[in-house]
Known about the structure:
Helix content: 10-25%
Strand order of the largest sheet: 8-11-12-16-17-18-19-20
Shape: globular
Radius of gyration: 25 Å
Strand content: 35-45%
Number of helices: 3
Number of domains: 2
Amino acid sequence: MKITKYIKAFFFLITIVFIGCQENDYTFGQIIAPSNIQITAEIVGADASNPNGDGSGVVNFTATADNAVSYKYVFSGSETVALSGKTTISFSTLGLNKYTVTVVASGIAGVSSSKAVQVDVLSTYSAPVELKSKLYGFDPADPTAVKTKSWKIKSAKPGHFGLGPVGGLTPTEWYSAGIDEKAGLGMYDDRFVFSSDGSFTYTTNGTIFGRSPYIVNDLGPNTTGNVNGPEIENYPFDDYTATYTLTAPGGVETISLSGNGFIGYYTGGNHKYQIFDRDVPNEMILRTTDGNAEFDWWFIIILE
């Protein structure tokens, strides 16, 4: 009799476990790889007389695909995440050159497809000696020497960080940080090193400061960073190395960083920083537009 009870109890427990397992059997639905990838490349300044552009080397790309949830552009060993499928790439090699850019379209559960496009782009811009000397220490007497300079946010100056309207001409028009206002949030201890070989090294000291959702969409989920409204403070992020180019679309000197490279505060966007002013010795005023084209973000950087 006791044995019969034990056997019944055993089968009852097995049934409960089985039902419990069934209740947690989640599915993602049908996983379909993105298809029908379409890529358009708008070469800035291109027209009937100048089919390869105005010489700025800037190309605006747009990618679409069926069943895609995000996109990534791969060029010259660097990758740029573009959730909307839109990005801008600056090609700085002088002359008329053919470039291959690959778009990786990702779908549900990470399944992906890719397609490459080639563009013929003209670049005639050569950065002036004054800019190269200031940015990384270019020496015209020894033009092939490898030179580097390290920059940081000038936290001791009012207005070293802030925002304003897109295309505005007044730095930090809508918000201007006070002296050391963002201390301890993962920005002031960062260092940005520009080298004459085109490399850009970012020292984070373990954490960075940035804007959500751009920072998590592009760099990965937040683990221990402090969420403060739309900002993430001390987001864990390692040092990294990227590349940069100097261009002047529309006559505006611009630092274009590869991949998800940034300066000071992560805002997504096209990772281009216009040099608004470089007249003050050892410092520059930069601005960049965020990923939603909602604000222009302003920075004052200073040589160490």
